[in-house]
Structure prediction request, 188 residues.
Amino acid sequence: MEVLTRPLSGWPCLVLNADYRPLSYYPLSLWSWQEAIKNVFLERVQVVAEYDAPIRSPSFEMRAPSVVSLRDFVHQDRPPAFTRFNLFLRDGFACVYCRSDAKEDLTFDHLIPRSKGGRTTWANIVTACAPCNLKKGGRTPREAKMFPARPPYRPTMHELQAMGRRFPPNHLHKSWLDYLYWDAELES
Prediction:
């Protein structure tokens, strides 16, 4: 992870909840500078930190926001949507069978195959690398003698946020560091 003192390309703006925590760690909650300025004018956010880069119009000038905080708190306790990304995040972007982290090779696997009545739900889907998914095929874990490292479950938003902190972005701006908390083993 590289910490930059110069403005990042495109001047992305870190978006914090009203409690000064990021809305999301992975992907990191970022807005374009245009979106951030629009929300400043609509009084939906307050500017917490700025880049040294000025934004000008014929009648106005301000520095590009690098960190904004929402004025109204957004509750994070809603159940997460069942998406490919959230499923991969829940399982740590690794195959639940062989534990490989071949991110480009990850697929969905139905524990109880759809051909046997299995549904596409949090409790029946896991991530699997393509070789393990092919090896398991249309069989149950018992039939294939392939068992996931842990049973699938519906994660909470807090669990997904905690998992997201394991995957810091490659580049961060210095002004963001006071608001981002990564796992300790990643900082060393």
Notes: DSSP finds six helices and eight strands in the chain.
